[in-house]
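Hi there,

I know you've been waiting on this one. I reran it after we fixed the sequence typo, so this is the corrected version. Both the input and the resulting structure follow.
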Amino acid sequence: MFLLAQHDNARRQARLNRWAHIRRVGKLQYIVTRTAVWGGTGIVGDVLINLAMGRGFRWFGILVFALAAPIAALLSWWGRETDYVATRLDERTKVRPER
């Protein structure tokens, strides 16, 4: 049980360190790259599926992914940032055991 708790703490600390690095790089870069990856993947997938199904090229799918990707990226940043700040706040407010 003790080893499991240590492993969970190590994973949590690694996740926090990765997010701290992403925060240092910047919010704009995170939003732009996530928008490009999610939007680009969605658009390419939608176009390929429509062409494979014989429906032809549709602008609506491109518009949906182009508008939804930045919103999803912002929500992703917000969620990860909320977890990060809450965890850091918990670490600061923990009472250290007396020796």
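Quick highlight: DSSP finds three helices and no strands in the chain.

Best,
R. S.
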